[in-house]
Amino acid sequence: MNDEKKILSVRDLEVVYTSGKKVVQAVNKVSFDMNKGETLALVGETGAGKTTIAKSILGILPNPPAKLIGGEIWLEGEELISMPDAKKLKIKGEKIAMIFQDPMTALNPLMTVGDQITEGLLLHNDYTKEEAIEKAEEMLELVGIPKARYVEYPFEFSGGMKQRVVIAMALACNPILLLADEPTTALDVTIQAQVLDLIKTLRVKHNTSMILITHDLGVVAETSDNVAVVYAGKIIEYATKKDLFLSPSHPYTIGLFNSLPSMTQGQKRLNPIIGSPPDPTCLPMGCSFAPRCPFVTEECSKEEIPFAEIAEGHFCRCCNLKQEEKTCH
Amino acid sequence: MGRYILKRLLWMMVIVFGTALVIFTILYFTPGDPAVVIAGGNAKAEDVANLRHLLGLDKSYFGQLREFMYNTFIKFDLGTSWVYDKPVLHELVIRLPRTLIIGLSAMALNLTLGLLMGIFAATHEGKWYDSLTMGIAMIFISCPDFWVALIMILLFSSQLGWLPSYGIGGPQYYIMPIICSALGGIAVNARQTRASILGVFREDYITTARAKGQKEGRVIYGHMLPNALMPIITSIGNGFARVVAGSAVIESVFSIPGVGLYLLTAINSRDYPVVRACVLFFAVFTALSMLLVDLVYAFVDPRIKAQYSNARRRMK
C-alpha cells in the first residue's frame, strides 16, 4: 500500500469496558487502514463496537468505564494513543472531527448554535472573535441555515437542522478525517438523504476521509468506498463496497444481506439471523459468530480464526468458506 | 418578561394577604392571655382588664382582624410593640442589617466553598478524595448549628479567648455566627453540586465539547457547570430564603439582636404585633427570593426564558 496516500492506520486496537468485576470486551484487536479521501463504512449490529472504535480514534472514550488496553493508531505518521494529552487537544476537532449519532443531545442546550461552532474555530485557528463568528456564519449558510439564526439556541431547531449544525461544527476546521457515527439514524428518511448529500458535498471540497458508522446497508451503498463488517468487536470481513455487495463471504455478512426484504419477490416474512450476539463479557473461543452460524463446524471454536485474504483486497475471518460455498450457491 | 414579573408580584400580594390572615388566626386561638403575660403574674384583675381594653384584646375575632388588616394593608402600619412600646417597623429596620450581614456572608461562604467542593468531588468521582470531601459534607450536615455554635464558643471564647462569645460590635463578633450558619449550607451545596455535575457528566454535548479539543477546565466550567446549575440554583434560593427566616437559632445562641431573635423574644412574651410583623416580613422576603430564583433560571436557561416571554424577540 502506498504510504503517501495512507492517512489512518489502526493496529490491534483493544478496548474494554469495566463495570464492577465484569469486563466487557468491546473492541478486540481491530486493524485497518484508510487512504486519503476514502470513505470506510463500519457496519454491524448495535453493541458491536463501532462507536467505540471511532471514539478511540478521537480519544474521547469515557474513562472510566472504558479503557484502551492495547494497539496503535497512526494518523499521518503520528501515533495518537501515546501522544501527550496537550498535543492531542490540537488534533481533536482540527484534524479529526466527529458527527454524533443523536443531534437532539449532541448540542449544549444553553449555548447558541453559533457560539458552539465558534468555540472550535477559536481553538484551532488564529482568528479574532469577529473573524471566527464570520466563519461560523459562513458554515451555517453552507449547511443551509440562514446566518441570522446564529444567535438561536438548539431548542429552537428541528432534528434535521440540529444535525446540520453538528455537521457545520465538525467540518468548520476542515478536518482530514471525519468520523460520522450513524449521522442519519435519528432522522427521518427524507432528511437522511439531504444530510448524506450535504456531508458528501462538503467532504469532496477538502478531500476529507470519512469513517461512516451505520447499520443501514442502503447508506453504505450510497456513500462508501470500502466496508468493514464488525461483529462482537472484531472486523470479520473487509472489502470494497462492490466486492462486498456482489460476493459477501462471511456467513454473518451473508445473513445481513439475506435479512433485507426483497423488493421483487412477494416476501411475507423477513429472514433474520437467528439468535443474538454473544455476551461480550465472555466471548466464545474462536469465531464469535459460531453459535449462530448455519455452517458451523468443530473447527470454528478451536482457535482464533485468521483474517484471510480470499480475493484481492477482500478479507474474511472464516475457516469454512469452502463448505459454505457448496451449500450456499 | 415584564408581564411575567408583574404576574408574580400580584400573586405575591395574595400570598402575603393569606399569610397575614393565617398568622393572625393562629395567634388569636393560641391559649393564654397576652394581657396576663405582659401585666405580670402579680397584676390585679382590674389592671389586666384595663390592659386588655388598651390592646384591643376585648374585641371580637372579626373586630380585631379587621383592625389588623386595615392597619397593615391600608395604613401600612405594622403597629407598636406591646412590651417595649416602640414602633415595630423602626425596630425591624435597625435589626435587619445585622441579620443580613450574617446571612449573606454565610451564603457567600457556603456558595463558594460548596460549589468548589462539589466540583472537586464530581471531577474526581470514585477516588478517595471524593469520599473525603463528601464525608466532610456529611459531618457538616449531621452537626446541628446550635451545637457547633456552643462547641465553638467553648473552644474559641472560653478556652482560647480569641473571639467574643455574644453580642455585636466589631467584625470579630460576626465570625463565629457566620461560620456556624454557613456549615449546613456548604454541605448541602457541595452534595447538590456533585450530584448534578455527575448528572451531566456523561451527556452527549459534553462529549461534543471534548471532541472539539476543548480543554478540560473549559469543558467543566463552560459546558458542565451551566447545565448543572439548575438544581443548584434551587438550593441557593432555599438558602437565601433561610437567611432571614432561619436566623433565630444562631442569633439566640450568640445573643445577636437581629430579626430572628426579635421574633423569638416576641413569641415568648406574647408580643403579638411584633410576631405578626416579623412573620409577614419573612413571607415577603421568602416570596421575593423565590421570584429571584425563577428570574435567575430564565437568565441561565434560554428554554425557560422562551416560556416566559410571550412575544418572541430576536436579539442581536
Low-confidence stretches of chain A: none
Indicate the mean pLDDT of chain A.
84
Assign the CATH topology of the largest domain in chain A. Rossmann fold
Helix-strand topology string of chain A: EEEHEEHEHHHHEHEHEEHHEEH
Question: What's the β-strand tally of chain A?
Answer: 12
Number of folding domains of chain A?
A: 2
CATH architecture of the largest domain in chain B: Orthogonal Bundle
What global shape of chain A is seen? globular
Range of strand content of chain A: 15-25%
Broad structural category of chain A:
alpha/beta
Low-confidence stretches of chain B: none
Specify the overall morphology of chain B.
flat
| Spatial strand sequence of the major β-sheet of chain A | 6-7-8-3-9-10-12-11
Number of helix segments of chain B?
14
CATH architecture identity of the largest domain in chain A: 3-Layer(aba) Sandwich
End-to-end Cα distance of chain B, whole Å, is: 18 Å
Largest sheet of chain A: 8 strands, mixed
What is the helix content of chain A?
25-40%
Describe the 3D structure.
The complex is a heterodimer of chains A (329) and B (316). Chain A has 2 domains: 37-58 and 86-226, P-loop containing nucleotide triphosphate hydrolases (Rossmann fold, 3-Layer(aba) Sandwich); 234-262 and 276-328, no CATH class. In chain A, a hairpin with a 2-residue loop joins strand 1 (6-19) and strand 2. Chain A has 329 residues and is an alpha/beta fold. Chain A contains 11 helices and 12 strands. An 8-stranded mixed beta sheet of chain A has the order 6-7-8-3-9-10-12-11, with helices on both faces. Chain B folds into 2 domains: 2-74, no CATH class; 89-308, MetI-like fold (Orthogonal Bundle). In chain B, helix 7 packs across helix 8. Chain B is built from 14 helices and no strands. At the A-B interface, helix 2 and helix 4 of A face helix 9, helix 10 and helix 14 of B.
